[in-house]
Specification:
Immunoglobulin-like, Rossmann fold, 20 strands, single chain, 2 domains
C-alpha cells in the first residue's frame, strides 16, 4: 500500500514553507525523498533526503532532519534549494519567468518506488492581473485585485546585468502576491529583443522615469506610495533614480548595491562609455583599468578586482563626479549585501553610502543588512542555489529567505 502524502496546497508559493508529510509508514522505516526540477535551459536539477519515520510512522520534512542528503538539519524547503544540476559542475538555475516552478517528488524505500507527486510552486496569486508591456517601455505588470484598504502601493523592479526581465519578473510577481502592485522593467537585453539596447551602456534614466510615471498612473494605484528595488547593476540604477527623481520614490531597496556609476558593459566595446545617461548626457563614471573589456572568461573571473581597481585608482575628483548623489534621495533605503561578493565590493560600497548619508544628516531610515556567509547573488527564495566561491549553499539559501522577509517588512512599513 502506498503511504499517505500531504504536500503543499493549491496556492503554495515559491517563497513560502513547503508543507510535506508522509504517513502510514512503519515506525523507524527509512525512506528516501528525491526532488527534481527542470530549468528553462532543459537542465535537470536534483536533490534528495533520507529520513526515518517516527513512532507514529510519519515523516514531516518541516520537523525532521535527513540522516543523509543534499542538505542537513531541519529545513522545510531543504529539498528545494539544495538541488544540483545533473552531470555537470554547479551552475545557475535558469528560471526566467513567473510561470509556476514545477517540482517532482519521488518516495522510495530500499530502492522500491512507493509513489510520486508533482507540486507547482507559484510566484503569483490567483487574484493578480498580469500585463505584458511593450510600449512605451518593455516590462511586465502584476496588479492584485482592488483592495478594501483603498489604492495599492507599488514597486518598480530592476534586474541586473543579465538583462531582460531575469530576476525582476519573479520578484515583481512575488511582491504582487503580498499586496503590492509591481512592475518589472527591462531596460536592456543582450539579444536586443523588443527593440531594447543590446548592451548595458548609456541607458537613459528617462526610461525608468517613464515606467514609474506609467505605474503611478495605473487605476487603483496610490502614486504617493511608490518604491524602487534593484539587483546589482539594477541597484546602481535604482539608487541613481531615487537620487535624481526624489519626488517619485518613497522607499528604495538595493540588493548588492553600488555607490558609484561604473563604466558600461558591452560584449563588443567600441570605446569607453558610461552605463547611464541623464537629460541626454552620459553620467560621469569610473572606468575599468586596462581599457574597454570584451568580458572574456578571464575578465569575468576578475570582476571584483576590476571594480576595486576602478575605485582605488581613480582620483578624488573622479570619484566624486561618479558618486551616486544619495543625499538627494527623500526616502528610506534598505541595502542588502554578502561578504563573499565576487562581482564588486557591495558591502564596502553600502557602508560608504551609509557614512555619506550620516554625515549629511539624512533624516530618513537607512539600513544595511549584511550576510557574512552570502555572496553577490542573494536570489529568489527557495529556488536552487547558485554556487558562488566561498559561499555555503545552506547560508546562501538562508540569506535569500531572510533578505526577502526583510524586504517585505521594509516595504510594508514604508509603503503599505
Amino acid at each position: 500500500m502506498e503511504p499517505g502524502w500531504s504536500i503543499g496546497h493549491a496556492q503554495n508559493r515559491t517563497d513560502g514553507a513547503l508543507e510535506m508529510g508522509i504517513r502510514q509508514l512503519t515506525p523507524g522505516q527509512k525512506i528516501t525523498l528525491e526532488a527534481t526540477a527542470q530549468d528553462d535551459l532543459g537542465q535537470v536539477w536534483r536533490s534528495f533526503g533520507m529520513y526515518r519515520a517516527d513512532d507514529q510512522g510519519t515523516v514531516d520534512t518541516a520537523g525532521t532532519a535527513p540522516e543523509e542528503g543534499t542538505y542537513d538539519g531541519i529545513d522545510a524547503n531543504g529539498l528545494l534549494w539544495s538541488m544540483r544540476p545533473d552531470g555537470s559542475a554547479p551552475g545557475y538555475f535558469m528560471k526566467s519567468g513567473s510561470a509556476p516552478h514545477a517540482v517532482t517528488f519521488r518516495l522510495s524505500t530500499d530502492g522500491v518506488l512507493l509513489g510520486e507527486r508533482i507540486v507547482d510552486l507559484h510566484f503569483v496569486s490567483g487574484d493578480v492581473r498580469i500585463s505584458e508591456i511593450t510600449k512605451p517601455f518593455a516590462g511586465k505588470y502584476f496588479c492584485p485585485e482592488a483592495s478594501e484598504r483603498g489604492p495599492l502601493p507599488a514597486v518598480l523592479v530592476l534586474g541586473g546585468s543579465a538583462g531582460g526581465l531575469l530576476w525582476s519578473e519573479q520578484m515583481a510577481a512575488l511582491l504582487s502576491a503580498h499586496g503590492f502592485a509591481a512592475l518589472a522593467l527591462a531596460y536592456f537585453d543582450w539579444q536586443g529583443r523588443l527593440g531594447l539596447p543590446n548592451q548595458l551602456a548609456e541607458v537613459p534614466l528617462e526610461v525608468v522615469d517613464r515606467a514609474m510615471r506609467w505605474l503611478q498612473a495605473q487605476p487603483g494605484i496610490d502614486a504617493a506610495r511608490t518604491g524602487v528595488m534593484g539587483l546589482s547593476k539594477g541597484s546602481e540604477l535604482a539608487l541613481l533614480y531615487a537620487s535624481l527623481y526624489p519626488q517619485a520614490i518613497r522607499a528604495v531597496v538595493g540588493y548588492s548595491p553600488a555607490s558609484h556609476v561604473f563604466e558600461g558593459i558591452s560584449m563588443a566595446p567600441a570605446g569607453r562609455r558610461s552605463s547611464w545617461t541623464y537629460e541626454g548626457r552620459p553620467l560621469p563614471y569610473l572606468p575599468y583599468p586596462g581599457g574597454p573589456k570584451s568580458w572574456t572568461p578571464a575578465e569575468l573571473a576578475q570582476l571584483r578586482k576590476l571594480h576595486e581597481q576602478a575605485l582605488n585608482t581613480s582620483t578624488d575628483e573622479e570619484l566624486e563626479a561618479a558618486r551616486i548623489p544619495v543625499e538627494a534621495m527623500r526616502a528610506p533605503a534598505l541595502l542588502i549585501t554578502g561578504a563573499h561578493d565576487e562581482t564588486w565590493p557591495a558591502a564596502e560600497m553600502a557602508e560608504g553610502v551609509l557614512q555619506r548619508l550620516k554625515k549629511c544628516g539624512y533624516r530618513w531610515e537607512v539600513r544595511h543588512e549584511h550576510f557574512p556567509e552570502a555572496g553577490h547573488l542573494i536570489d529568489i527564495p527557495n529556488l536552487p542555489v547558485t554556487a558562488e566561491h566561498g559561499v555555503p549553499a545552506k547560508a546562501a539559501a538562508a540569506a535569500a529567505r531572510e533578505a526577502w522577509q526583510t524586504v517585505l517588512s521594509f516595504f510594508h512599513k514604508n509603503l503599505a
